[in-house]
Amino acid sequence: MQVKSKSLFFITILVLIASIFLSQYQVIEVIPKDDKRSSFELSSVNATSPIEYFNETSFPRYTLVGKPLSLIQSPNKGFPVIIETDEILLIEAQAVSETTNWQFKLVSTANNISLDILAPTFDISDNLWHFSTAPEEYIPGLYDLQLNCSAGDDYQTHTVKIVNQKTYPFKILHISDAHFPSYDGKNTTDINLDYIEHINALDADFAIFTGDLIDGYSARDFVNPDTGDPLAAEVQIKLSLWAFDMIELPIYYVGGNHDLDSSTSLPDNPSDVWTKYFGKNYMFFNYIDWSFIGYTCSSSGLTKKGLNSVSSVFSTEKNKPNVLFYHADFMNQASNYRASYNIEVMLYGHEHHEEKYVSDSTLYHCEAPMFNNESSVITVLNETSVSLDDVVYDFSSLLEIPTTKTNFSIIFTLVTFQIVLLSRIKRRRKAE
User: Fold this and answer.
1) What mean pLDDT is predicted for residues 413-428?
2) What is the reported pLDDT for 432?
3) What angle in degrees, to the nearest 10, is found between the helix axes of 333-340 and 304-316?
4) What's the rounded mean pLDDT across residues 220-230?
């Protein structure tokens, strides 16, 4: 009987130790992604590939072409919004206080949904209208936002996505460095248009684009035939947005050095063009428990105002898992944010090769260029962990989730109880 008691004691201890281990490291079966990449060969593409990019016989044109910010300020093409059934949709519009006859619609190829205006307010300091609205019907899908009012008509493409419910797991598509219309002798426009077919086959909830949408000052292969200079930054932006409107996802954009840095060879200022189409140089949104903070900056980094704006967001979101996305660590600003705040995931581009690593409990992911037929799907599994390339990254220790401590306390109590119980059994048998 004594041998059996000892065996039972050690088996119990081993089982409980295994339970503790498994409670700290969740075992998740990650299914390898189905790679449906096109057989498009980079070697067959060059900057003089003949194509008429705005010819519908070559590529299907989206109903509306991405346009500058005008009346509609938010949500917009570069900073869309995802709402659940019965959730209020907040809209900001720039117009004078006398503006009347406001009408908003959500429009897709399949649906045309009117929005009920619940509570309009006007901010006289910046001539900004704030609207709380509700769709007459909540039909899941990706929509353009359209506006009609006494001040005129406006729209923003691929701006609102309706889902039945935001749930785990959810998937983020990370894309970067499209470099429209060309880069280093490659016709990136042809390449990117082809790759969009692959992107649309992926099962993602939304996309994050981490900079260099256009090639900007160095687009030497596509030139103005009259001057021999690169295409204006605004022409490059229009081309890229026309192409990206073929992506069937809401996309959160931040700009990089090629989007913003100026050059005497360009007839316009890229930074002004970016602001004209995308607005503010930082953004912030929540998806379930996760906070996403993104910022746009040139190679000289964010201004002091921009730095303070991003810092204020981190200060209010310090108890949530955070994702920071940006183009490159210019002026060590991203590194400084990481040194000051808990950031679970950092997404960026610029390096033109993929890289992922963990440092100081943060997952860093640098995405390779879109024009190399590259993108990644990051799966957010729950409030503490994500999966990338079949590897699960658990941030429980960094986030100090209370449930983890609770589980450990329960297991510790059970172990103590078993030890005490077995000791009493041994003493009782000795007494007998």
Assistant:
1) 54
2) 56
3) 30
4) 72
Listed ranges 7-16, 97-106, 213-222, 228-237; the one with the highest mean pLDDT: 97-106
Domain with 203, as residue range(s), is 33-62+167-389
CA–CA separation, 301 vs 336, rounded Å? 12
257 and 240 fall within a common domain? yes
> What CATH number did the domain enclosing 316 receive?
3.60.21.10
Examine residue 416 and state whether it is found in any structural domain, yes or no: no
Mark whether 158 and 192 lie in a shared domain: no
State yes or no: pLDDT of 33 exceeds 50. no
Q: Report the side by side order of strands in the sheet with 345-348.
A: 282-287, 290-295, 322-325, 345-348, 362-366, 355-359
Is the separation of the CB atoms in 272 and 310 below 8 Å?
no
Mean pLDDT score of the chain: 83
Cβ(323)–Cβ(365) below 8 Å: no
Residue 34's pLDDT band (cuts 50, 70, 90)? very low
* Domain endpoint, select from 165, 198, 230: 165
The pLDDT value given to residue 67:
87
Distance CA 338, CA 166 (A): 28
Per-position b or e across 184-193, b if 16+ CB within 10 A of its CB: eebbbbbbbb
Q: How far is CA 118 from the centre of its chain?
A: 29
pTM of the model: 0.81
Whole-number Å distance between alpha carbons of 346 and 334: 9
The answer to whether the beta carbons of residues 286 and 242 sit under 8 Å apart is no
CA distances from 45 to 6, 48, 51, 131, 221 (A): 73, 8, 12, 47, 13
* Pairwise CA distance, residues 212 & 274, whole Å: 11
The answer as to whether 406 is a domain residue is no
Which residue type does 89 have? L
Q: How many structural domains is the chain composed of?
A: 2
Q: What is the mean pLDDT of residues 414-430?
A: 54
